[in-house]
Amino acid sequence: MEKPFRRRALVVTAIVLAAGGIYLLANNLHTPPTPDAATVTFNRDIAPIVFRNCIVCHRPGESAPFSLLDYGQAKKRAGMIAALTASRFMPPWLPEHGAVEFLGERALSEAEIARIGQWVEQGAVEGEAADLPPLPHFTEGWQLGEPDVVLTMETPFTIPAEGSDLFRNFVLPIPVSTPRWVKAVELRPGNPQAVHHAVMQVDPSRASRRRDEEDAEPGFPGMDMAGSEPPGGQLLGWTPGKIPIVDERLAWRLEPGSDMVLQLHMLPSGKPEQVMPKIGLYFSGKPPTEQAFSLLMRNDKIDIPAGVADYLVEDSLTLPVAVQAVGIYPHAHYLGKSIEAYAVFPDGRKQWLIRIPKWNFNWQDDYRYKQPLRLPAGTRIDMRFVYDNSSANALNPHNPPQRVRFGNRSSDEMATLTIQVLPEQADDKALLREALMRARLEKNPDNWFAHNALSGALLFQGRMDEALSHINEAIRLQPGHPQRRYNLANTQLALGRTEQAIESYRQALAIEPDHPKANNNLAVAFQQMGDLERAVQHYRKQLTVSPMDPQAHANLGTALFEQGRAEAADDAFGRALAFDPESVSALEGRGDVARARGQSEDAERHYRQALSLQAGSPGAHYGLGAILLARGAQEPAITHFRSAVQANGAYVGVLNDDAWRLATSPEASQRAPEQALVLANLADQLTEHQIPELLDTLAAAQAANGDFEQATQTLEHALTLADGGSAARYMPGFRARLALYRSGKPYVDKGG
Fold first, then answer.
1. Is the pLDDT of residue 274 over 50?
2. Domain holding 659: CATH number?
3. What's the pTM value of the predicted model, to 2 decimals?
4. Are 455 and 470 in contact, with CB atoms under 8 Å apart?
5. With contact defined as beta carbons under 8 Å apart, do 233 and 260 qualify?
């Protein structure tokens, strides 16, 4: 009985040491032979397995500590190869084979494992040279070819010789001056023997930079990646041997001024090691056809007593809309024992999303499904994470075991499951985010992050009062955070509480003077109030914070144009287009400037270019409608006006304002009564003849066209509607104009 026990102990030792990056030579290990007695040779039987599954890492210059490119190298480690493949520790692949199919599976079949064992049992025979397959070709350097942009660290980071594993986040500015679509990301770790795995996210704010400035060394410590997020719902990770994926369908938008946040998991090797990774970005020339969303499930209620070997953490989420699952990323730390995630369809059927019977923190990865999994609305996603905090867990960071709670350090524990999904409609992302955040609040009503994110999802859906309630709760729970104040201001602005929004933006800026967006939105609030001077002032402040922000340049242009400064406005729109040639708001603005100058052909070109980029662009539809109406093309003009109002109901007010100007301008050269009547009639029709102020404009247009009888009837109807309502304050003006129309005179607005 003693020998089998010692043999099993040796297998365990080999596995544990391999997990720490030290490999044990164990040639005295044997796997029982298979029933097939034929001689197994390296060249004919084993090399194809090794070449297909192992040498992506086990070759010079890569992450593995030794090469397996030839028979001699494999024979020296034959026993260890048999032991580690039999235990399924190598090749590193955690998901259970057969539960669901993933791209790039490295798991060996039972027959392949048995063949390796038989080869070792028979003496690790080399075989005939003619049977040896050619070595696979590996691309040196960048696997996807030369990147469009390469991100590098200014100075290397030094890993100390001794100590526990390190998690550190490095902030790499992305040098682009215009928005770009990113179709692929490739990481070259720089020192693959020292870097265990990596995660990449993007931060459009300055939160990560501020964290980086807290100490003199490059980056900042821990597993919290500050203000960064997965870009466009992407799972951007690196593990040894992983081939980056190019998928133009899911290209994500990269904004100028953004930072890449690179989290490296690094292992001390016994001597100081330097790491200086590079990240390659590959751009697409066209926007994506689909948009991904990161469905992040988590349960932070983790409190594992010392010695417990089967501590269970669960979470579930019911999908409010149908999605396609394209990838998955489970995450736990060293106490993780097993991970399961599955979907339960509305009809009761069960679909595995991932099943990992033996979790190993050292070999965590994200996985992409071989074929997308369709999950209909009403599907429930369940996750089950089991933890082992006993001394039997060889990876337990505490000896003896200690109580472990939730936390971002690797000695703490986490339970997160990120599923990359494709919603059927872009607007469905807000519904998914709402469902996620409500599920988190059920577990923890004081989760400020969930209140904040839920507020944003509700705001997107137009559920303003609910959004306001949740952002106020987030501020109560975390009062000193500038982003919460900024989000509150956005909600107040959407509710039309402009003065309150201005105060909240100012509070956000008092906490964070260089907030990445607050000056811009504060300027928008001032512009809505008609305070164009302050609007211009804060747009310019925004551009000192983010000088390459095309939207801020375009917004500055609109404020300058409203001030009557057409040339300065055109310059601002031009700068916006220099940073983003596809800026729809800048193209609309350039069209407005050209139209005001009487350059209708140039204006039409800008408007049509805007519509080619965004078919529902309200400003472009409206401007194009105005040009066509001036040319006498009334029907197509009305079609464009209707499209503008359909895209943005506020354009009813623009119709009314232009109709009033064209009907009542004190400058005869600025009046166009027939055009005014078309605009006023359309505005009145779109509001079903129920808005007194619009009826007043219609009456003015009718009078300008000499139809005083109809103008009288229209304004009498306006007076009836206004009496006792919010428009009652306009009734004296209505009566004065009614007297003019009854006497056969049009109204001219002299600004009084």
1. yes
2. 1.25.40
3. 0.80
4. yes
5. no
